Amino acid sequence: MGLLRYWYDFLFILFPKTCGACENVLIHQEEYICTTCSYHLPFTDFHQFPTNPSAKKFWGKIEFEQAVSMFYLTKSSLVETLIHNIKYNNRPELAYFLGQKYGRILKKSDFSDGIDLIVPIPLHSKKLKIRGYNQSLHFANGLAESMEIPCDDSLLKRKINTVSQTRKDRLERFENVELIFECNLSSKITAKHILLVDDVLTTGATLCSAASCLMEAMKCKISFATIAKA
Ligand SMILES: [Zn+2]
Q1: Which Gene3D superfamilies match (predicted)?
Q2: Which of 122, 140, 161, 182 has the most crowded Cβ, counting Cβ within 10 A?
Q3: Using an 8 Å Cβ cutoff, are 196 and 224 in contact?
Q4: Helix or strand or coil: residue 222?
């Protein structure tokens, strides 16, 4: 068990324990997500189907190995509340818990074969300061622990703080995120196949941008994993 897990268990004792998905108080032996929600969470099982809806988001846009998402994200759903709590209600431990859970599933499948590094999509430093944590890093750390693959969050840096893109069409959004990352090669990390990790997959533009940055700098293969697929 990693140190982070002990820290989260410690916090769990200090603060009221509520389910990350329905926000009801957890009963004894329930962890982070209640039994009812755990039963109803919409797992995608995308790791079993290489031509899954998450992979299709990247078709024709970038060269990649595999793409998976843990859950389907729909409006007014348990997963929507879960993601909201992870991003805006100071519950990064939920992302870590989900990462551990998903990592165990992925490790049992062929998905993890050959992956030698896990890299989370970074937040811009301004956003990180406001939120206090990067939810994707916590998900990545959970994955890393159960997949037994190292995680590195120093490799990618976000140089532009992207503004709201809701009013722009899909194509413009792709151009807009083209150059938002840079690679920190001073970290002297080598990897042949990187698993790039984010919270939600929507257009895939952010992940594509980060992936091309890494592939150019590291000459590596890329796979993608997100907590949810919109
Ligand atoms: Zn619940």
Answers
A1: 3.40.50.2020
A2: 140
A3: yes
A4: strand
Distance 31 CA to ligand 1 centre (A): 10
Residue 213 lies in a domain: yes
Mean pLDDT of 77-88: 96
State the total domains in the chain. 1
Tokens of 181: 């990352």
- Cα atoms in the Cβ-side hemisphere of radius 13 Å centred on 62: 27
Residue 20 CA, ligand 1 centroid: distance in Å: 7
Q: What is the pLDDT of residue 223?
A: 98
The residue range of the domain holding 100 is: 42-229
pLDDT of residue 171: 46
Distance 30 CA to ligand 1 centre (A): 10
For residue 70, give the CATH number of its domain: 3.40.50.2020
118 or 3, higher pLDDT? 118
Q: How many Å apart are CA 168 and CA 187, to the nearest integer?
A: 35
From the CA of 66, how far away is ligand 1's center (Å)? 31
Distance 33 CA to ligand 1 centre (A): 5
Ligand 1 center to 95 CA (angstroms): 15
Would 35 be classed as within a structural domain? no
Specify the pLDDT at position 189.
78
In a domain, 211, yes or no: yes
pLDDT digits (tens, 9 = 90+) for 147-199: 999 999 999 998 876 654 454 455 445 555 557 898 887 767 788 999 999 99
Residue 37, in any domain of the structure:
no
